[in-house]
Amino acid sequence: MMAYLDNSATTRPCNECLKAVSNMLENNWGNPSSLHNLGINAMKEVILARSIIADSLDVSKDEIIFTSGGTEANNMALFGAVKARKRLGKRIVTTAIEHESVLQCAQQLEKEGFEVIYLKPDKYGNISKEQLFNAVNKDTILVSMMYINNEIGSVLPVQSIARAVKKADSPALIHIDCVQAYGKINISPKKIGADLITISAHKVHGPKGIGALYINKDSNLTDQNFAKTFGGEQEKKFRPGTESSPLIAGFAAAVKEITITANQKSHIKELNTYAKTMLSQIDDITFNSPDNASDYIINLYVPTFMRSQTIIQELSANYNVFVSNGSACAKGKRSHVLTSMGLNNEIIDKSIRISFSKYNTKKDIDQLVNALEDLIKKHPRS
Questions:
Q1: From the first residue on, what is the mean pLDDT of each consecutive set of 10 residues in the chain (382 residues)?
Q2: Which residues on neighbouring strands pair with residue 297, listed in sequence order?
Q3: For this structure, is 178 an active site residue?
């Protein structure tokens, strides 16, 4: 039996997603930009999907731009926002624990002459409101912050960004990477005060290769603010090119299946508590995730002589248990998140992440715990 506990990397597509993608490929494969019936029918599905995703965020469908995923949406958000506001200041505020797709954009913008403030977490992975308020000033043109950290699950103070911007009398646009939060908690860009929101389909049981960027129409961003791709009128010229209607339909189908209910929250909370209880019984295991982290993510140190990459491979090959050691995009590099928390190399190099979805059960956790116990027994820490 397989125990899949790497849902922060990707989730298993739900049945409704599979049906929607298959239907578009088999029966509704026209180009959405074509003016004949096949094209019109495909475009109807794209329009419907845009409305479904917009409704899930309580925004207008005209404010949703489809992208190839979270990474492209983050790139569009950072470079687009800075281009739109560059005459008003030079400061960008973000954190040291963002996804690589935000960090690498910020590093590039530094090379272009912008000042980037990287808020550092405490030893528990938390960023404080005070840090945020101290960093934002009148010269700040962008604040970009993830809602939930993808490696340790810490919840960042995104609710305070708008207040910090207002207090500083800053012209800053607000971008929130909601890839790990979307589908798990209720998100309202308008209530948060966000101008730009990133979401991704394959984190919510949708297909890979499709995501979306919310662009607040009141922010007055236009296609001219973004890195230009020429060749079409699609996606309001923000991202021209033939829409991937099968993936878009699959995205919408998955979103329709999202259930942010008390029962769903209770199920994930129960899994998290059970996992921590069972894992705590293994000598010398320690948790890197803070107590106030998202219930969907647990990051922990495994006391063995093996590095995390080897632990992951052993769990997969010999126990049919699937976890990770952080962001899939980092591909084995030492975690910048755990490093920025000031953890020692022993912990950083031997930590793994387990992450849940609605499909997980206590049996998955039992399988993980049994596997780790056996693995540590065979390969103890030297």
A1: 97 98 95 87 95 97 95 94 95 98 97 98 96 98 98 98 98 98 97 98 98 93 65 63 89 96 95 98 96 97 94 97 75 85 95 97 98 94 75
A2: 355
A3: no
Tokens for 301, please give them: 């140190």
Q: From CA 96, how far away is CA 202, in angstroms rounded? A: 25
Question: Closest by alpha carbon to 202, among 67, 382, 105, 338?
Answer: 67
Q: What token pair was written down for 356?
A: 């849940």
| Closest CA relative to residue 248, chosen from 205, 201, 216 | 201
Catalytic option among 14, 17, 178, 329: 329
Tell me the C-alpha distance between 48 and 42, whole Å. Answer: 10
Count of residues for the chain? 382
Q: Three-state secondary structure along the chain?
A: CCEECECCCCCCCCHHHHHHHHHHHHHCCCCCCCCCHHHHHHHHHHHHHHHHHHHHHCCCHHHEEEECCHHHHHHHHHHHHHHHHCCCCCEEEEECCCCHHHHHHHHHHHHCCCEEEEECCCCCCCCCHHHHHHHCCCCEEEEEEECECCCCCCECCHHHHHHHHHHCCCCCEEEEECCCCECCECCCHHHHCCCEEEEEHHHCCCCCCCEEEEECHHHCCCHHHCCCCCCCCHHHHCCCCCCCHHHHHHHHHHHHCCCCCHHHHHHHHHHHHHHHHHHCCCCCCEECCCCCCCCCEEEEECCECCCHHHHHHHHHHHHCEECECCCHHHCCCCCHHHHHCCCCHHHHHCEEEEECCCCCCHHHHHHHHHHHHHHHHHCECC
User: From CA 171, how far away is CA 92, in angstroms rounded?
Assistant: 11
Q: Which residues pair with 65 in a beta bridge?
A: 213
Give the CA distances from residue 122 to residues 136, 149, 160, 188, 339, in Å, rounded to whole numbers and listed in that order: 19, 14, 18, 28, 11
